[in-house]
Amino acid sequence: MIGEIIAIGDELTSGRIVNTTSGFAASQLFAAGHEIFAMHIIGDTPSLIGEALLRAIGRVDFVIVTGGLGATTDDLTNEAVAEALNRPPTLYRAILKQIQAHIQGNANDTEMLQKLAWLPEGAEVFNAESRMAGYLLVYDSTPIFFLPGVPTQMKQLLVEHVLPCLAGWTKDNRHHVHQRVYRTFGASENMINRLLQPLENTRNVKIGYYPVETEVHVSLTVIGQSLKESDILFAETDAVIMQTLGDIIYGFDRDTMASVLGELLKKNGLTVSVAESCTGGLLASKMTEVPGSSKWFVGGVVAYSNKLKEQLLGVDNRLLSEYGAVSGPVARSMAEGVAAKTGSDVGISVTGVAGPTGGTDEKPVGTVHMALFAHGQTTDHHYHFSGSRKEIQEITAQSALNLIRHVF
Predict the structure, then answer these.
(1) Which of 115, 356, 367, 387 has the greatest number of C-beta atoms within 10 Å?
(2) Taking the CA of residue 30 as centre, how many other CA atoms within 13 Å lie in the half-sphere pointing to its CB?
């Protein structure tokens, strides 16, 4: 289905608050196979809210509206909807009862919160016993979902109510959408664009390119007039993308490099440990962000000083003196040392100059050495990255994860 997202609030149009809810909704809907026609940010002006809503209803299959459902005087979404759609405000006694049961404070607070119980006629409340505002309103067979602007509340209601409702909605069978996001690493957006450009002329196929930090995400959207047509076209296009991009594709949709790596390690019954210098624990952090990483991640050492490289990882002082901390021999010793100390099957090390100072003519800022110990053998790898300190640390950590991925 094709939808539209409308975010409401003066705090959004003024820039005081960043609109994260629309991005979350779009990503979740895309993953569920829906297409977003447009996203808007509108201030707390009833006439503009009504205008945007009527325009959206006339051109999409569903609408999601966030914000303006609270009890304060500047929360005007319900009033605007009631007027624009000719749905008179109606008292929902179940909501009023819930408010009265939980209210604490003076009479003015009670009167203010009672505003939450007045909704446009025909509203189907998600959960009258919940303290979160949220409801569905169907207008001319088009479902309109009204969600709170508070990100945590909005996300919960979207996942628990909106997505399941849309999955079972059968109003419109004109479009059958099949989508996938390919997560890539190691090639530029322009290079990927050139490789996939021939596919862009395929009818009913849309391809998008989105740089995300050190990665490039490629989206494929296939729209068919029937489910069979959509499935066949998707399978054909997917096969071409997979063959064209090959190994630079590391995962799909919501995968991360660390989560994909974790599955590979778990599948092969292997464990990994890390020895970090210039990344300062970022590599270990990425691994431990993955739920269940304790099954394959043993631990790590942040050995920033030469002294700790010697004491904790067993790096020979002669290597440090002869080659320097940022070197292939030291990286090799770090990887072997952390694997030996932790008993892991795989050891990865990173040492480099993240900048903005500390570089030399021989080893300028962005110089990074990594080493990988796996299957009883050690290999070292020399890189030169560019960017800010944070950017160099990020691409170093991602490159280290990618290096381990290629073990399999």
Answers:
(1) 367
(2) 20
Q: Which tokens sit at 245?
A: 């991009």
User: Which residue range(s) make up the domain with 185?
Assistant: 176-252
Whether residues 280 and 362 share a domain: the answer is yes
Could you give the angle at the alpha carbon of 118 between the alpha carbons of 115 and 124, nearest 5°?
Answer: 135
In this structure, the answer to whether residues 31 and 62 fall within a common structural domain is: yes
Backbone angles phi, psi at 107, to 5 degrees: -65, -35
pLDDT digit string (tens) for 308-340? 999 999 999 999 999 999 999 999 999 999 999
Measured CA to CA, the distance from residue 148 to residue 65 in angstroms comes to: 8
Name the residue among 67, 61, 78, 70 with its Cα closest to residue 43.
Answer: 67
| Rounded to 5°, angle at Cα 66 from 179 and 37 | 35
- pLDDT tens digits for range 216-271: 999 888 888 787 888 899 999 999 999 999 999 999 988 999 999 999 999 999 99
Q: What is the pLDDT of residue 379?
A: 97
The residue written with tokens 């607070």 in the block is 109
**Averaged pLDDT for residues 379-402:** 97
Q: Are residues 102 and 210 in the same domain?
A: no
What is the DSSP secondary structure assignment for residue 326, as one 8-state letter? S
Q: Copy the structure tokens of residue 162.
A: 């909106």
Q: Indicate whether 100 pLDDT > 80.
A: no
Query: In the prediction, which pLDDT does 105 show?
Result: 53
Query: Max Cα separation, the chain?
Result: 82
pLDDT at 153 exceeding the cut of 50: yes
In this structure, are 119 and 202 located in the same domain?
no
| Total number of domains constituting the chain | 3
CATH number of the domain that residue 238 is part of: 3.30.70.2860
Mean predicted confidence (pLDDT) in 358-375: 96
Residue 367 neighbours by CB distance under 10 Å: 23
Q: Residue 34 is which amino acid? A: H
Q: Helical H runs in 268-327? A: 282-288, 306-313, 317-323
Cβ(81)–Cβ(50) below 8 Å: yes
